[in-house]
Batch of 3 targets.
Target 1
Amino acid sequence: MNKADLVAKMAEKSELTKKDAELALNSFMESVEEALVDGDKVQLVGFGTFEVRERKPRQGRNPRNPEQVIEIPASKAPVFKAGKTLKEKINV
C-alpha cells in the first residue's frame, strides 16, 4: 500500500474527502517527525511506539572489496515497535 492508497482508505473509513484525509495523514507524519527530532517518543497504545535509537560506531566490510574493513560512524535510527493489539491482529 502506498500513500495514495492509504489516503483513499482513510477517506473511505472516516467519510472525509481525499483532500482532508491527505491533510490529516500529512499532519500526523509531520507531528511524529517533529517529536522524534526533538528526542521524544510517540506511543499509540495498542498500535505501537515510534522512537529514535542510538547506533554505536562499528566496523563493517566494504561491499566492493570485502577484504577492506571500514569504520561505520555512530548514528541515530528511527524505529517502530508494534503494540500488543497490533501484533495480535496480525497473528490471527
Note: The chain has one domain: 3-90.
Target 2
Amino acid sequence: MNIENRYERGLAKLREIDGEAGERVVQSLEGIAPDFARYLIEFPFGDVYSRPGLDLKSREIAVVAALTALGNAAPQLKVHIQAALNVGVTRDEVVETIMQMAVYAGFPAALNGLSAAKEVFAQGDAR
C-alpha cells in the first residue's frame, strides 16, 4: 500500500467525517508532532475508517460509545459527537448511545458524555 495513498485517502475520509474540526486537530499538532498528525490521518482514517465493513454512521456510534466509556477524552468525544451528526446519526441516537454506556462504564462516564453532547448540540443550535 502506497504511503501517499494512505495519507490522501485518510485526509479525504477525515474531511468527509469531521470537516474543518478534524483538520484543526491535525493542524494543532503540526508545530509539536507533525509525524503524529500524519499517523492520525493514515492509520485511523486512511486504513480503518476507509474499510468497507461498517458504514460511517455505525463507526461514529462506536466511537462515541468508546470515548464515553473511556471517561477521560472529552475534547475527542465532542469532535466525534459532531462527526456522528455530520454522517447522519441523530441527536436522539447520540443520547441513547451515551446513556447505554452507563450500564458498562458507569453513571459518571455517561453524565460526562451527556454534558459533552449538550455542549455540541448547543453549538449547533447557535449556528
Note: The helical segments are 3-18, 20-30, 34-48, 56-70, 74-86, 91-105, 107-126.
Target 3
Amino acid sequence: MSSLERSLTEIEQGWHQTDTDYVCHYCDTVFAKDEVFPVEGKFYPAAEMIRQHVAQAHPDAINDLIQTDSKYNTLTTKQRSLLMAFARGEKDATIAGETGVAAATVRHQKFTFREKAKQAKLYLAIYERVFNQTPVPDALVDLPEQTGPVDDRFAITTTEFQTIVQKYFISTDPLRLKRWPKSQKAILAVLKQVMSLIPVDRHYTERDLTAVLKPVYADYPMLRRYLIDYDFLQRKADGSDYWRNPDYKE
C-alpha cells in the first residue's frame, strides 16, 4: 500500500500501525508493539519510539511531504516554497522580502491555503460517508486507573479483549487459564476476565482469595500479585483482607 492510500492522519504523522507493529513511511523502520526500547537509560513503548524516530531520523519530513512526487500533488513550485517557509515559522514580512512580493500578497496566499483546506475537509467528509460508510469504532473495555504512565497498551477494544480471552483461556466456565501472556495488553485482558470471579463489596481473607484463584491458574500467587499491582484488587498491608477496587466498575 502506498503512503497516499493511507488515512489522512497516517500520511500527516509519517507512520502507521499494523496489528503487531508501528511502521515508518520514510524508511520502513519497524517497532514491535509488544516490546519496549532502551534510550539513554530509559525505556519507551513502541508508540513513543515511532514518534521519536520520525522526529529525529526525518527532521525534514514536512518538506518531503510538501515535495511529494505524485500526480496528486498539484501544488505549484511557488506554493511549495511558500508552504516550506510557513513550516519553518518565517514571518510574512520575511517571506515577502525573500520572494520580492508584498506582505499582503503572502497573507492572501495563506488565506487561500486555509480555504482550500476547508474545501478538502468537506470533500473528505462527503467521500467517507458516501463510499466507506465508516463503522462505529470498537468501544474500549474498562480498566482500573493507573498511577504510572499509561500508553496504548492500556487501550483494549472489546474485540481485542474477546480475542485475547479465547487465546489464553482453556475455558471460561469454569475459568481456566492456559498460559500466562507476555504482552502487557494481554495481561490486562486476562486480569479483567479473572475479575469476573470477584464480586463487588465482598472481602476475602488470603485463604478465601486463594480458593478463587488457584483453580484458574497454577501460579495463583503471581496472579494475585498482578491483580494488586494493576489495582484490580486492594488489600491491607498485612495481607489479612482483600477486596475489589471500589473505583473500578465494569
Note: The two ends are 39 Å apart (CA to CA).
